[in-house]
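Record format v2
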Amino acid sequence: RKEVEQDPGPFNVPEGATVAFNCTYSNSASQSFFWYRQDCRKEPKLLMSVYSSGNEDGRFTAQLNRASQYISLLIRDSKLSDSATYLCVVNPAGNQFYFGTGTSLTVIP
Amino acid sequence: NAGVTQTPKFRVLKTGQSMTLLCAQDMNHEYMYWYRQDPGMGLRLIHYSVGEGTTAKGEVPDGYNVSRLKKQNFLLGLESAAPSQTSVYFCASRRYGLTGGVSGGFFGPGTRLTVL
């Protein structure tokens, strides 16, 4: 079983829409969670960490559900510039991080 | 600050050739990582290092070797390249810290390697 699983999409949404991505993880002892953004042919960049109480950064909201072992990312009022692949990342313990395969988002004018 | 840099950006090898990929970071980070990214597979950890002079195997270490002689540099070597090693290679670094609030790392721009 994979450590981290994501719906690959693609998600095609109109500008201004709200879109949500989920990511499930297999190790219940996982301690750290993150969302990264990766533009085409570029390196992944940290979008936000995911805290147990949930956290918000502008139009982006990240949530953690430990009971069901998933994390989510909600994007409100989508912009054309939000088009990218979103990777969820889980740190089960120690020094290794596991990346999901990514969810592709295209925001349509 | 340059952040994380990788050399070279592109390379084409023939089967059996060897090469070394260089990763350098100027953030004084303790941890450094080498990943490969393949379509549909996501990022997979090859090797990592928690400090100068130390290395450890990740998820897919076979066919690769690494060295961390200086804190700011992490080298990835392919001794005898195979077509299965065609991929995009990313280096990442992060600071030491407790798990909470520590990111998965800052990434370099990647090296696109093709093995014919």
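Residues 20 and 45 of chain B are 17 Å apart (CA to CA).
Chain B has a mean pLDDT of 92.
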